Amino acid sequence: MHHEQNVQLRHDRFMGTLQQIHSANTAAVSTHWHEAAQQYSMISPPVQATQVGDIDVEHVHFRSKLALRGNLTLEDIVKIYRSQTPEDARPNKNLYAIEPPHHPEIASTVTRWNQIVRDGVKPQ
Question: Which of 5, 90, 98, 111 is the most buried (most CB within 10 A)?
């Protein structure tokens, strides 16, 4: 196998893994919205947006009504969007910690990355 083919294969596998993580995260967020709706005797509408980045107006209205009915704070809403739970408070489920490297020149970068995975980005 040529070097270029090997690089492409690794890239394709990596992108496939990212897509699987994204799909799992999207499903988890949908489940959290559904569970939040049930707490207030509401029904989450089906997804109408067909493309990534589309705005689903029905969901915007539903989520606004849910926030009002539940007296949810902005922090509560952000936690639902991020799929944060008391059991798993990581703010972005699409990010995963990296094993500490054996190369000292990238240790600080990996440490910072893992801090972001755990705590999110904190403005400096």
Answer: 90
**pTM score > 0.70 for this model?**
no
Which of 84, 93, 108 shows the shortest CA–CA distance to 35? 84
Residue 106 Ramachandran class (φ > 0 left, ψ -120 to 50 alpha, else beta): alpha
Query: Comparing 97 with 8, which gets the higher pLDDT?
Result: 8
Q: Return contacts of 82-91, CB within 8 angstroms, 24+ apart.
A: 82/29, 83/25, 83/28, 83/29, 83/32, 85/32, 90/117, 90/118, 91/119, 91/120
DSSP for residue 55: -
Q: Where are the domains of the chain?
A: 3-89, 94-124
Q: What's the average model confidence in pLDDT over 56-67? A: 87
For the stretch 18-37, pLDDT in tens is 788 778 777 877 888 888 89
